[in-house]
Every structure is written in structure tokens, then in C-alpha cells.
Amino acid sequence: MKIIEKITVTEDITLISLSDSPADIKLIAEIFNMTAQAGIDVDMISQTPPSGLHSSLSFTVSDEDFGKVLETAAELRRLNPDLKIGVSSGNSKIALLGESMRGQAGIAAKVFSAVASANTDIRMITTSETDISLLVVKADVENAINSIKKVFE
């Protein structure tokens, strides 16, 4: 039984990071309402636990939506001038999929060790019971996948 059944790569991904954001679900809802109204499809989402009244929120979109993201970011800054916004385009998402990951201890450890051995620049990680997604710089995709395959095949 293969643990990782499928590896997919999605290229041309932009990472948006909001630092020192108020830890307020209303603001998070507003951010994603604004992106939806702009016709921006959001993929990966990650939030850090609040530290006091602030947290950090990151999400990814297609590089095709870069212009719309900049417009939305400008509007967010207008509404919340203290918000720090970082934008990084030209990334790729590696998604590792497998029903056999469910309930298996150590899968993430093996994946992270594999990409570390390939000196992969990881920008973001999201997971579910059957999926590990890594946002990496485009130049690291091939080495990261080869290293992961060595561990799991």
C-alpha cells in the first residue's frame, strides 16, 4: 500500500502574508469577502495562533490574480493602516495526496526531513488527514519531489 498515492505541482502561485493582523474573525471574514468579490480564488490558508491581540494570516492565489491582489491589499491597508502585507509571487505548490496517510504517525516528519535534505525553501505548509501541501520557490520543486520520492518509494 502506497502512503503517497499522488504528487501534484501547481505553478505560478502568489503568497500573501498579513503580519500583526488583529486577531479578529470579523477582519478575517472581511479579507476573504473582499478577495471573493474581486474574483480571486484562494487556495492554501494558514493562520498563526493569536499572540495578544494579533496574529498572522497567509494565503495563496494564482499569479494571474496578482494585480487584483494588489488592489485588494491597498484597500485592506486603507481600512487597517497598521496591517503589514507581504506579497511573494512565482512560487509552486507541491501537494502530496494519500488516503493511507490518515492515522499514520510520522508521515509529516518523513516529508519534512526529505525536503530539508534537499535544502528546499518552504514558504508555507498546510495539511489535512490525507494531504500535505508545501509552497516552495519554483527552483526547488524538482529536487524536493525527487527527495520525497526516495523516502516513500
Would you mind describing this structure in some detail?
- This protein is of the alpha+beta class and 153 residues long.
- It has two domains: 6-11 and 91-152, ACT domain (Alpha-Beta Plaits), CATH 3.30.70.260; 14-89, ACT domain (Alpha-Beta Plaits), CATH 3.30.70.260.
- It contains four helices and six strands.
- The longest helix is centred in the middle third of the chain and has 14 residues, at 66-79.
- The protein is elongated and about 50 Å long.
- The mean pLDDT is 93.
Task: Please state how the strands of the largest beta sheet are arranged side by side.
Answer: 2-3-1-4-6-5
CATH architecture of the largest domain: 2-Layer Sandwich
Elements, N to C (H/E): EHEEHEHEEH
The percent of residues in helical segments reads 25-40%
Alpha-carbon distance between the termini?
11 Å
Layout of helices and strands, plus pairs?
Blueprint: E1 6-22, H1 25-37, E2 42-47, E3 54-62, H2 66-79, E4 84-97, H3 107-117, E5 122-128, E6 131-137, H4 141-152
Antiparallel strand pairs: 1-3, 1-4, 2-3, 4-6, 5-6
Helix pairs in contact: 3-4
